[in-house]
Amino acid sequence: MLYDLSLHMGYIYDVPASGARHVMRLMPLSLTNRQRLVAGSITVSPTPDEQSHFVDFFDHPATAFMLRAPHETLDIRMQARVQVESQPIAADFSPLLADLPEEIAGIWSLAPDSPHHFLGESPRLTQAREIADYARNCAMPGLTAMQIAHALCARINKDFTYDPDATTVDTTPLEAFRLKRGVCQDFTHIMILALRSLGIPAGYVSGFLRTIPPPGKERLEGADAMHAWVRIWCGETNDWIELDPTNNIPAGTDHIVVAYGRDYSDVVPVIGVLKSYGGQRTVQAVDVVPLK
Predict the structure, then answer these.
(1) Which residue in 70, 182, 225, 237 has the fewest CB atoms around it within 10 Å?
(2) Considering the entire predicted model, what is its pTM?
(3) Is 50 helix (H, G, I), strand (E, B) or coil?
């Protein structure tokens, strides 16, 4: 499937800001047998005084830039063309939950995709007993790691309501869990915490979701902004799989990957510091258009 993507992120400051330093992770990745970035560009207005490119720990390209002069707005636009490949349906050869620790122990690598990075606490995800208890109800005896992941994905989708007004980017997973409402970031964080509490490595995927559904299909939740879903390590044979608890589906040709991380803090699309006071308003628009 070939897509044209466009993203607009705008920031409007109550008082002109200066000395701003930001890092962007917005460009879709090229991933072997998964997706290919055909072309892409990012424009920033005002034009940065300094700009540099680097690759972070998780092998994702990022751009850092600085604006010295006072500015009332910051406008970021990304355009890209991406080819997404269909993924074969994988048979479940994942280990039983009781056998998973032995397979994890057999992994000696500490490469960015090593399951060891996705087991413990991370900057935004700390242990929560309520979420761990919730997870245990899905971990029935005799289930494999993959079966448990699918069960949790389905249960979160059933028990939680998609509500973009219920939470903010800073809402904790436990707060969203108690509300039983939120957006894709909340559902993703809750599912990651639930899986990790069971000893199943899980991480955060940031990306885009097709905004125009195929004929006869309903529009997916979360398509109006950048999307998030979960990456789960299911043993050496199945390796990593990706599930979208917001829509209770495996990540497929409707999902375009921008970044992988332990939680949202590793993949924030735009993050930075600036000198100013007062508040700010933000706007975001996403369009993911399939090409004929």
Answers:
(1) 237
(2) 0.94
(3) strand
Domain coordinates in residue numbering, the chain: 2-85+269-291, 99-266
For 185-218, write each residue's pLDDT tens digit. Answer: 999 999 999 999 999 999 999 999 987 777 777 7
How far is Cα 69 from Cα 16, in angstroms, rounded to an integer?
9
- The tokens describing 154, both together, are 């389905």
Residue in 122, 113, 134 with CA at minimum distance from that of residue 233: 113
What CATH architecture does domain 2-85+269-291 belong to?
Sandwich (2.60)
Catalogue the E-assigned strands of the chain.
Answer: 2-24, 35-45, 50-55, 61-67, 71-84, 161-162, 181-182, 202-209, 227-233, 240-244, 249-250, 255-261, 270-275, 280-290
**Cβ partners under 8 Å of residue 236, min gap 6:** 103, 106, 107
Pick the CATH number of 99-266 from 3.10.620.30, 3.40.50.150, 3.30.70.20, 3.20.20.450: 3.10.620.30
Looking at residue 163, what DSSP letter applies? -
- Work out the pLDDT band at 87, boundaries 50, 70, 90: confident
